Amino acid sequence: MTRERLLGLALVLAYPATVAAALWPSTWAFAATALVAYAADAMASREDESLTERLAQVNAGVTVRFLLRDLALLLLLARQGHAGRTGFVVLALGLLGLHGLRGAYSALTLYVIRRRRLPAVTRGMDLAELRIPDAPHPVLTTRHARTMLHLDVPVLAGALFGVGAGLGGLAVAYALGLAAAGLMVRHALRNRHLADEDRIFDVVNRRLAELRPEVALYFSGSPDSAYQANMWLSTMDDLDHRAVIILRERAMVPLLGRTRTPVLCVPKAMDMVRLDLSTLRTALYPANVGKNLHLLRMSGIRSAFINHGDSDKPASFNPFARAYDEVWVAGPAGRERYLTMRTGVRNEDIVEVGRPQLAPIDGSGVTPDPMFTVLYAPTWEGWSDDLAHSSVATMGPAIVAALLDHAPQIRLLYKPHPLTGTRDPQATERHHEIVAMIERANAPRPGGGDTERLKALTRRLEAQAGDETAGDEAQISRDTAGAGSSGDRRETEEAWTEAYWQAGGPQRHRVVTGPHPHVYDCFNHADLLVTDISSVAGDFIVTGKPYAVTNVKGLDTEEFRRLFPTAAMAAYLIGPDCAGLADLVAQAQSGGPDPMAGPRQELRDHLLGPDELDASKRFGAAVSALGAKSLIHEERPQA
Fold first, then answer.
1. What b/e readout covers 416-443, taking b as 16+ CB neighbours within 10 angstroms?
2. Do domains 212-354 and 372-448+507-608 have the same CATH topology?
3. Distance (Å, rounded) from C-alpha 75 to C-alpha 594?
4. Buried (b) or exposed (e) across 544-574, using 16+ Cβ within 10 A?
């Protein structure tokens, strides 16, 4: 039986058992069943991660159970002969009053949370004028606020020894409850001025007027898609133009990586028009989502779709791209893709800018590790079944088994796409199966490397991240007036990455999830890549090292290369049966002939443009040119 089912069973049975013990009546049976109920409720509160947003609803449901236990306590005392006494009546009224105190506390908590839920969340903007107070301590506002429901604990504990002791516990409960409510009243008074949304936008617009942004990176998406914005942060930081990052989801703000560029998150569409974006000339869009329209409809701002990768998947030739003034691609291959797929995007609206974010990838073809390393980096399952781009659900375990058969001669890195399993449960199951296979393969191997140093650096990173994100979103907006992370944080991240690759020894296989280490860092430590139809292949080609692409549907080789030239034209292909994978690994490991070396160089030029063209300069020039078109449009006389 799962932990969740056991917890649910305890919650279902504990309260009827408490009532039965009261009817018995048995003081100690009542105490035992009440203790089980308290424990189950405490565990349930830890499971509920969204209590802050649903405090009223959750407390309403839990209050029913606590009210049932209070009634059971009164039933126990009545069965013990205390019903006719004055103390019993006072105790009963006192318990009823505790529920009123809890309700008042919940109302105050929700008031404070809503006041501090600013209509605009920022990083790197000075909001001192708003006089944002410190956030209430988390114990008062998060899921721990449910502890207010446990005010009856001293009452129940005392009542087990008689009504008099119960009244003493009642006094303790009221003292604690009134003290907590008093703190929340103080926070409510300190935060009431934050209800003035007009003033908040006045301050934000004054900061925008000082910043005078010319270009914006505009992004909307789910938390799982944060990587799509993060891959462009360093490029935005390096621009010679004043820039701002505009987000549309609150959950995205803490997921955004380190950046020197100011960040502004405006969740509501109606609030977008309240922003003073009069200096903005260019907006860059990494993803095609409906909320893009909220900025696209604003006149005077030229738009460019820059995408979050360059591959043969539909995202790289979506007809929606016609909505933008320009479509920016890495090289000639991207241009051809839009033109040949009849997307309606005109040739003159396509601009080749290279891939400036690929700068961290080592193009020497040499890895720093003594152990031959294979990186398996599959994509996710996509939005429809007919795409069959991901190998995780169908070929993943077989690929990993074939690679692990070479151990200990090779090391395996497994880095799945962040969205793996979000649509197909089978992909999730196969992913867990792959992780288990790798863990079993690692189990008998002796440890190596400085794992204690990695643990210490992980704790330091977490502490530094905690310092940067202390408090709620209002406090973070207040405290991140200086854009970007500190030098100490950057140094710690670099030291953590170095320690990560050293920890566990060079033979240890790794499952790499989350943002760190970055997939580009995995490229630098890999001698061979196995991937799917995705931009990973197009990015890896910068390394000059060999790679293989999965042919999930087992299509004819020539047909597969024709359909997916970006991924497959210079790749070794792996069919559904994984035949040839072992030979490919052996060939690459031995340093023998590499028939695809020449095609890879040709494809690299086709995908990214000639090596002599600096992608950062090309990108910056494209920003300048598009912004100039916006100015020309403004100066053109209106009919």
1. bbbbbbbebeebbebbeebeebbeebbe
2. yes
3. 83
4. bbbbbbbbbeebeeeebbeebbbbbbbbbbb
Question: Each residue of 393-402: b (16+ CB within 10 Å) or e?
Answer: bbbbbbbbeb
- What is the average pLDDT across 163-177? 93
- pTM (2 d.p.): 0.78
Q: How far apart are CA 554 and CA 570, in angstroms?
A: 18
- Collapsing DSSP states into helix, strand and coil, what is residue 218? strand
The string of DSSP codes covering 321-340 is GGGSSEEEESSHHHHHHHHH
Q: Assign domain 372-448+507-608 one CATH number from 3.40.190.10, 3.40.50.2000, 3.40.50.880, 1.10.10.10.
A: 3.40.50.2000
CATH 3.40.190.170 fits 212-354, yes or no: no
The DSSP 8-state label assigned to residue 84 in this structure reads T
Rounded to a whole number of angstroms, the distance between the first and last alpha carbons of the chain is 74
* 5 has a pLDDT exceeding 80: no
CB 226 within 8 A of CB 251: no
Alpha-carbon separation of residue 617 from 162, 506, 522, 623 (angstroms)? 81, 38, 26, 10
DSSP-derived pairing of the beta strands 121-123 and 263-265: antiparallel
Kindly list the domain boundaries of the chain, sorted by start residue: 3-195, 212-354, 372-448+507-608, 451-503
Peptide bond before 408: cis, by omega within 30 degrees of 0? Answer: yes
What would the DSSP string read from start to end of 405-458?
TTTTSEEEEE---TTTTSS-HHHHHHHHHHHHHHHHHHTTSPP-S-HHHHHHHH
Question: Alpha-carbon Rg of the chain, whole angstroms?
Answer: 30
Confirm if 167 and 93 have CB atoms less than 8 A apart.
no
CB 464 within 8 A of CB 488: yes
Q: Torsion over CA of 51, 52, 56 and 61, rounded to 10 degrees? A: 10
pLDDT tens per residue across span 453-488? 888 887 877 776 655 556 788 998 998 886 554 556
Residue 631: band (very low, low, confident or very high) from pLDDT cuts 50, 70, 90: low
Contacts of 388 (CB under 8 A, 6+ apart): 394, 552, 553
Q: Do 232 and 217 form a contact (C-beta atoms < 8 A)?
A: yes
- Ranking 111-115, 315-319, 520-524 by mean pLDDT, the lowest is 315-319
Angle at 467 between CA 462 and CA 472, to 5 degrees: 110
Indicate the average pLDDT of the chain. 85
